[in-house]
Specification:
four-stranded mixed beta sheet, Rossmann fold, 13 helices, alpha/beta
Length: 506
Amino acid sequence: MTVTPTICELVDASIRRHPDRPAVVGPDGEVATYAMLDARAERFAAALHAAGVRRGDRVGVCRWKAADTVAGLLGIMRCGAAYVPVDPASPPERNRTIFEDGGVRAILLDDRTAGSIDGVPGAVRIVEPPEVVEGGPALVAPAPDDLAYILYTSGSTGRPKGVCLEHRHATSFIDWCVRTLRCGPEDRCSSHAPFHFDLSILDLWMPLASGGSVVLIDEALAKDPRGLPGVIAERGITIWYSVPSILSLMATHGRLDEQPHDTLRIVCFAGEVFPLPGLRALRSAWPEPEFWNLYGPTETNVCTAYRLPAAIEETRTEPFPIGPACDHCEIRLVDDEGAEVSPGTTGRILCRGGPVMRTYWGRRPEEIEAFVRLPDDPDGAAWYDTGDLGSMDDAGDIVFHGRRDRMVKRHGYRIELGEIEAGLGRAPEIAEAAVWSEVVEGATVIHAAVAAVAGETLSIIRLRGHCGRALPPYMAPDRFHVMTALPRTSTGKIDYPALRAATASD
């Protein structure tokens, strides 16, 4: 019988095999070996245990990227607890809401975030764990079905919802990553994604599970397409992973021909469709590495993968497929009645298997509408409906056709437009708000139409200021349309087609 390992067990095995090898390279180039990572993780675990954290608890994390932050994540899991990361750049109120919803027992902070989060009921704040904690670390080995982390994504009610991933879900995915990308001790993997973003699971735990190095890229540099090629060269990165938009910007503005990339052997992208012009430019600049298109919502980790050809045909006009199902899960394309669709026909993308989440925090699995059972499935096991549409091509690869609801992807982030509307609605000067999106030259553009309460005057500066306080940066609308009133249907609902038409000339 095969025993499913935990994230802790995978990393601990690397610590035993490679204590003196570099585990984490900080944004400033400082190297933490596996032995150093082990010692720092024990300090965090000891401090958390002393603060009352026990197996099954949740611990919030609001820290910027650093080797100690990675050690903190490992220390949380060594207590048998799950980490709940948030974006340090997001409004403190949103992060506080996430921590309160998750019922965190403690919050890990750093010197830059120590003043941003307070007043979370029952949560102990830890900025710097002491060198020695009385009683020692009192580590608890988590079980495979214990929660490893909760990642909060955009929610249709205007409140974020927590995706609960167990150790077995994560290690099913990590094992696939290590095997497919052939990650080993000589690899140096970019950590471009912030830790609250699901791309970070591959960034962090694949290299640490295989004895490789995590190269942390800080938040400012992560947005600088001119500076990133230099990091690849200077740090000798071998595996790169990010959303397509940053890679496209690197191809356009990064002067890739001036920076060596001879160490780079694999380039992975996920989170959104990669428009062909940018992909073609990048492939031309980097002809040697393997390119992988990865797909999967936070709830499933990566569930399909497609390896791109060595060259992109000039005659190609459509984005590449998202590939077949990964071997650690199953994928089906079904119609609205749950029947499997024929090749070439668009259907709902369903997934089940090792990497699929347990539930959303605070919800029983049977209450989640996205978990469905198919009429022709003999074992009756539930499938997760991704909300995405796809079709099967002649080669057996899935072609992505977008979402069925009002959720969009921008810069790799999954955004529920209703959450932006809820955030705008919290402004006392806004009477009503409606948000929609369109794709312009391959990029998602978010529009917001707003109407002021009587006696108020809305300006773009005022609206952007409110968004900065109420929403994370990646959710801020690109274009605002100030109206006296929003058009409505006969049932009183906002008439989005009429709204689009009324603002088309703005």
